[in-house]
Amino acid sequence: MAERAVRSLRTRLLAWYVGTSLLVLATVGVAVCWVTWQSRVSAVDAELRVQARRVSGAVRARPGGAFDVELPSDATAYFQQARPRTYYAVWTIRGRLVDQSRPDLGLPAAPVSGARTRGASREVIVGDGELTVLVGRQIDDVREELWSLAGTMALAGTGAMALALLCAWLVASRALAPVQRISETARRMAGGELSARVAVDRTESELGQVADALNLAFDRLHEALERQSRFTADASHELRTPVAMLSAEVDWVLMRERSAAEYREALEACSRVAARMRGLVQSLLILARADSGELSVSRERVRLDLVIDQAVESLRQLSLDRCVRVESAMMPVTVEGDSERLLQLVTNLVLNAVVYSPPDGLVRVALTLEGNEATVRVTDRGIGIEADDLPRIFDRFYRCTSARTCEPGGAGLGLAIAKWIVDAHHGAIACTSEPGCGTEFVVRLPAHQAAGRVPGTGPPPPAPGERAVQGLSRV
Amino acid sequence: MRILIVEDEPDLARTLGRAFGEDGYAVDVAGTGADALLKASFVAYDTIVLDVRLPGGDGFGVLAELRARGGRMPVLMLTARDGLEDKVRGLNAGADDYLTKPFALGELLARVRALIRRASSDPRPELTAGAVVLDTSARVVRRDGAVVELTAREYAILELLARRKGSLVTRSAIYDHVYDEHEDTLSNVIDVHIASLRRKLGRDVIQTRRGHGYIIDG
């Protein structure tokens, strides 16, 4: 916890803030002290110069080359004051000491003129050609004043710093509170509470934008997870019914000894169920792989008319069984795409048309080149689709009432797969229907450019085989 | 006992129909909710096995309509959804029991048997009529401890009367509960079965109310 506090953003922000402020305050303090010191010292120097002139003015030359110092009374007072202690000394230009205010000054031989600090004193030395005058003054009072100034500034600085720190702490806490909320929300989300969202106060602030972006991401995630769980629920629902049929059939036949005909009938029923489950599992796998992006669509030149031929051929037996005639009228059209998926697309559409046609019905499959689009039309005269159902027929697991009544075996995945295949080929699929009269599906795919009518340019279509019935399911 | 199976998967409906038929029930099958409601308006079924997912309105709607029309028969719902919500919804709508697909056929038969037992005046699995004892789970009839061999139809008639012990059961009620919709038979066939039952169980068990029907005195 302590380590976390050290590492927390707020602590680090505050540390930087405090560090910078301290540096600034210290710099200002040092500068103020320095300037004050300088001004005080130059004031002392000016004072000493005045006194030095007075001392120099009070020097009288006596006969015999000797000098005498007769200070005026106020100057005498100045040099006798106790605090600050002051002193003077006078030398001849040759360096002979003329006079000094105290005997214990311990001054060196006559120095050069100027101002200097020696020990705890400030000294000014003035030379006028004949004499050198030194006037000194202890400056511990100036030093004390400066220390006191520094102390006051440090105190005030500390106080101001503490106040600023408090304010900064509050501001940082306030500013970072949304971060706390965001991380709290993200944790709740991760814990499975998918509806958790960050409350956004001010969208224009940076954190508000972060919260908005996160909420959007959460929405997407929630949606995806819900779609996933709905898909799983629907899939398991679709699988339960055939499993129930299988188990009921097997339970029944094992209840007692049965005749050979009864065994055969039961096994046939089981086989029907198994075929249905096979198709369902195939469809589910295709959609699950499409969702996770594992299912790729290859891009090769495909003769769509040959693909349609193959699809119609693979459904020949079924259409014969149901006495439905399938007619096709096609132009040779080449598209760019995945021949296997396109075969599945056409097969799903034609299968639906056949299954929902009445006996002696007619299904037409037409392929034309309209503009730059390969257009496939699959038309039946079957039961049709109610207007209410039309917008939802491409949804997964959606089954129209009429379809369920007439063909209970389907799971409602065929058109979802068809739609996915069309989308993956950048095409469009549409449906028009009149209940009781028939349905038409129109698929438009971008034709392979400028090669639309050149026969034999595409690779050979996949060999006819059982692949055609993979993933079949009904509306 | 006559039951209605409402199931839109023809293979499953056929299997269930045969299984219940072999268990001594007269079975009718409906493939849609509308069909089920129509059949239930003509026949007082002893139990309805109702699939939730039906074309043309789901099982919940059918159940609500049945109850709204005053149908009091036990209803067992079959569903492919096992969410708690659906169970609660089904039970709240007036279902008496609930079974999730896939189910074991034996469990479905046992639950329907239990529902019929609970709905009758005597909820014990063993019914008595004088010296005659019916073990309804094993479908065995004993008189004074000795097993009496009955045909399926005779057993069905005896069980119906025993379940309504003390109350009069009309000939047409017997006809409704013992024969399914596909059996077209004369109602005097029931008299033949009653006569046979009396021969096997003794004359004192089933009383005749001339012009009305039959009764096992309580």
What topology emerges from the helices and strands here?
The complex is a heterodimer of chains A (475) and B (218).
Chain A: H1 2-7, H2 9-57, E1 59-61, E2 67-69, H3 73-80, E3 86-92, E4 97-100, E5 114-118, E6 121-127, E7 131-138, H4 140-190, H5 206-254, H6 260-291, E8 300-303, H7 304-314, H8 316-321, E9 325-330, E10 334-337, H9 339-355, E11 362-370, E12 373-380, H10 401-406, H11 414-424, E13 428-434, E14 438-446
Parallel strand pairs in A: 9-11
Antiparallel strand pairs in A: 1-2, 3-4, 3-7, 5-6, 6-7, 8-10, 11-12, 12-14, 13-14
Helix pairs in contact in A: 2-4, 4-5, 5-6, 6-11, 7-9, 9-11
Chain B: E1 2-6, H1 10-22, E2 26-30, H2 33-42, E3 47-51, H3 59-68, E4 75-79, H4 84-92, E5 97-100, H5 105-119, E6 126-129, E7 132-135, E8 140-143, E9 146-148, H6 152-163, E10 169-170, H7 171-178, H8 188-201, E11 207-209, E12 213-215
Parallel strand pairs in B: 1-2, 1-3, 3-4, 4-5
Antiparallel strand pairs in B: 6-7, 7-8, 8-9, 10-12, 11-12
Count of DSSP-assigned helices of chain A: 11
Strand coverage percent of chain A: 15-25%
In the sheet with the most strands of chain B, the strands line up as 2-1-3-4-5
Low-confidence spans of chain B: none
Quantity of strands of chain B, as a count: 12
Share of β-strand residues of chain B: 15-25%
Q: Share of helix among residues of chain B? A: 40-55%
Helical/strand content category of chain A: alpha+beta
Q: What Rg of chain B is obtained from the alpha carbons, in whole angstroms?
A: 18 Å
- SS-derived structural category of chain B: alpha/beta
Task: Name the helix and strand elements of chain A from N-terminus to C-terminus, one letter apiece.
Answer: HHEEHEEEEEHHHEHHEEHEEHHEE
As laid out across the biggest beta sheet of chain A, the strand order is 4-3-7-6-5
User: Which shape of chain A, going by the Cα principal axes?
Assistant: rod-shaped
Mean pLDDT of chain A, nearest integer? Answer: 83
* Most residues in contact: chain pair: A-B, 23 and 28 residues
Largest sheet of chain B: 5 strands, parallel
